[in-house]
Amino acid sequence: MSETNAQGPFRRGDSVLNPGGKTEVPPMKLLGSLTSPYVRLIRTLCDELQLPYQLELTQPFLKLTREEHLTIKERNPLFRVPVLIDGETEVFESRIIASYLLQKPGARRGSISFPLSVEQENVLSAIYGAIEAGVTKFVLSKSDASIDTSKGYFPRFDERMRSTFEWLEAKLQGPSPSSLGEAYGICEMALVCCMEWMKKRGIYQWEGNYPHVVAVYERFKNQHSLVKTRIPENA
Known about the structure:
Blueprint: E1 16-17, E2 23-24, E3 28-32, H1 37-49, E4 53-57, H2 66-75, E5 83-86, E6 89-92, H3 94-102, H4 118-143, H5 154-171, H6 186-201, H7 211-220, H8 224-228
Parallel strand pairs: 3-4
Antiparallel strand pairs: 1-2, 3-5, 5-6
Helix pairs in contact: 1-3, 1-6, 4-5, 4-6
C-alpha cells in the first residue's frame, strides 16, 4: 500500500545531458509519485548517487485510472510503488531498490555506508515500520470516512509509530549511542522522509517531542537531495 500523488497520467521525468551536450534519455525508469515517502527515498538516493532516471508519475492510490492500475500491477504483483525499471531488470519494494542502487556500477556513494551494519539495518527497519503504520492508517481512513480510527486495529498503528520514535530517542542517548545522525546516509534520508510525510499528513505528532531524533532531522533536512525531492506544498 502506498501514497501517490495527483499529477495526471504517467509523465516523463527530466532528460539529462551527456558530457558532449547531447540530450540523452536516462537508462532507468522510476514508477511512483511525488508524495510517497517510499518513492521520495529512492529519488533522494538517486540524486545522491548521481544516477539519472525518468520519473513516471501516478495518480493517488484511491484515484488510479484503470490504465495506471494495470501498469503498476504488471510491474509489481504487490501493487505498490516505487518500481524501478533498469533495462531488462525490474525491482520493486523501495528497500530492495535502495540496495540495488547502492551496488550499481557508477553509483557515487561518497559518505553513504554500504553494506549497512546490523545496528543500521535495525534502525532502518524501525523507520520503515513507522512509515508503513502511518501510510496504512492514512489510506484506510481516507478510503472510508465512516471508519472510527480510535477502534479496532487503528490504535496499533499509533502505537507502532510512537514506539519507533521512543526507541530511536533512547538509542541516541546512553553510553553507546546509535550511529544515526553521524553522517548522511540511507537511514538519515529515510528518517527525514518519514518525519516530513507524517507532518504533511498530520499522521503523528513528533514536533515538540523526541529532542535527539529531531536534532538528527534538523541536521539533515536541508540536504540538497532532500530539498529537491520535498513534497510539493499543494500535494
